[in-house]
Amino acid sequence: MDIFRLIQDIKTHLKLSFDEVDRWFDKDNKMLNYQPSNGGWTVQQILEHIYLTNFYLLILIEKGSKKAMRNYLDLDLNLEIKNYSFNQEKFEKIGEYGAFQWIRPEHMEPKGELNLTEIRSLVSQQYHQCLHYLDLMNNGEGLLCKTTMTVNDLGKINVYEYIYFLSLHAQRHVTQMKNNELEVI
Fold first, then answer.
1. 78 and 141 Cβ atoms separated by less than 8 Å
2. What does the pLDDT average to over 24-37?
3. DSSP H or E stretch at residue 63
4. Which residues, 6+ apart, have CB-to-CB distance to 17 below 8 Å?
5. Is 156 strand, coil or helix?
């Protein structure tokens, strides 16, 4: 496995996902506050949910990156890299809106406590946090810590895969926002 290629691919995916999310902040109030016919979230609520989910995922990513860097002292990174294979198929459903059922925790539900400007700024900071962790673990260290991910039964995933999950989650909700937009048009 070319770990440097994986890190670059995740950076590219993050940029595309976050750029796409950021464009939604520029929509007019009618689009941002449109309640879809299925009773789902408005675009503004989806944007808040993306921020909240990122917030909690980044707590795990931060802990994982610290542990991975500590593990670097005791584990054979070259052996981990040699034995690692990225199973992209396992993750693809995460980015597809409606591909599986999962009840999100209440703390990831939008509450309307932040305005759009605050959410946009926080999401931008989250993007830069992800890049920071990828830069920090730029030699493969992110493979040295695995944490369980219950969503869609992913199981134990490494820190890089957590960051990729975060990016796929945003992509999933971009589709949801596009669905809302199609109803408005």
1. no
2. 97
3. helix 43-71
4. 167, 168, 170, 171, 174
5. strand
> Do 127 and 54 contact (CB within 8 A), yes or no?
no
- Asked if 21 contacts 47 with a C-beta cutoff of 8 angstroms, the reply is yes
- Predicted pLDDT of residue 40: 94
pTM for the model: 0.95
Q: Which CATH number characterizes residue 27's domain?
A: 1.20.120
Domain count, the chain: 1
Residues listed for the chain: 185
CB contact set of 74 (below 8 Å; sequence gap of 6+): none
Element holding 157 (H helix, E strand) = strand 155-158
> Which residues span the domain enclosing 70?
3-184
Q: Residues 94-150: pLDDT tens digits?
A: 998 888 877 788 889 999 999 999 999 999 999 999 999 999 999 999 999 999 999
- Looking at residue 103, what is its pLDDT? 77
Whole-number pLDDT of residue 102: 75
Q: Copy the structure tokens of residue 169.
A: 């989650």
Q: What is the pLDDT of residue 124?
A: 98
Which run of H or E residues covers position 146? strand 146-149
Burial of 61 (0-12, 13-18, 19+ CB in 10 A): buried
